Structure formats: structure tokens, C-alpha cells
């Protein structure tokens, strides 16, 4: 499967999992056969509509190489993360309802179910601005805040997920939204008490999830194809 095709499927998965926000949100993948280049979706297409032809090749000098379409305004967050993290091969930025609301709260996400085990450690929190990450300087600041993690929350804005594979980034993004939704529901019933035993078990659960990113991605891809 071509990278553009896998990215398009991932965008449709993200839409199904609550990441659609009009035609906003973007996803990229490092172009491994070309130095300092990436695939990134074009403007004006919803995640649910995404097809392989909606992805362009752009270099890290912010130039589109594969078409005459203009580059996304927030391409800086992708470029600067790739520069800072050679291990990263996929970056996602979206505005999912529950995760965005959670990012505005400044709270710590608690492992209230199995998939939330991925987020038992406090998530990096970017509050330098709530505006678009539209400059290399802001992109570099965001990459610094991400550090060695896979997720960074953007205050009053959304989320950024970065990972070594398209499958892993997609599943982490999907599970983050599910975890935030579950946390919101659990919180409505009262205070949530997380013990040291809960945290240890969450770490064990996370290791199991990390072995299954490809299988989980394939499952969600099949569900997207169902009528």
C-alpha cells in the first residue's frame, strides 16, 4: 500500500473516531526516500473525504513539490517535529471534541479504562499560544514541549500526536479521544481515585496495547469500509 493511501485511510479512521472538525485537521508522514520531505494533506478536504490524491509532497523549506496547491498554514508543527525527532515518521494535528475540551482544562488524565493506560504519565501541555502553529519558531517550541513523548495537548486548541509509524500515531490519536471521553463520563459520577496499584496495572496494559497497533489499525480500517 502506498503511503498516501495509508494516510487517507487513517484520516477516515480519525473522522470515524471523533476527530472531524469541518475541513480542519491535518496528517503527515515522513518521505523516507527523500531527505527533508513529507506527505501532507491539502487544504479544503474533510478527514472523512480524504483520498490518496489529496496528499502533497512538501519539503522542510515549506515548498510544495508535487502540485500547485498551497501548503497548510500549520505545516510548521510537522516540519519542526520531524527535524527534532528523527524517529518520528507520522504527525497528526486535530481538534477532537473531548480531547480538546480536556486540553483546555489543564487537568491530568486518569486511567479510567484499558485504553487510557497509554496516558498514565502526565501529558505535555503547550500553552505558549492557543493560536495556530503557523511559524517555524512556534513549531520548534511545540516540538521541544513534545520532547520524547507521543502526545502533546494544545491549550484551547487541540492535540498533536507523533509516532514512529502511521498505524501507531492513528491509534494513539483515536485512543486519546476515547480516553478523554471516558474520563469526562467517569468524572460526572464523582471524584476518581487512582491508586498506585492502578498505575502499575495501567503500565502493564500499555505494554500490551503497544504490541497491537497494526492489528487495531487494520480493524478500524475495516470498520470504515462497512456500509
UniProtKB/TrEMBL annotation:
One of its GO terms (cellular component) is cytoskeleton. InterPro entries: Aldolase-II_Adducin_sf (IPR051017), Aldolase_II/adducin_N (IPR001303), Aldolase_II/adducin_N_sf (IPR036409). GO terms for molecular function: actin filament binding. It comes from the Bacteria. SUPFAM superfamilies: AraD/HMP-PK domain-like. Gene3D superfamilies: Class II aldolase/adducin N-terminal domain. Residues 5-184 form the Class II aldolase/adducin N-terminal domain. Belongs to the aldolase class II family. PANTHER family: ADDUCIN, PROTEIN HU-LI TAI SHAO. This is Class II aldolase/adducin N-terminal domain-containing protein. It comes from Formimonas warabiya.
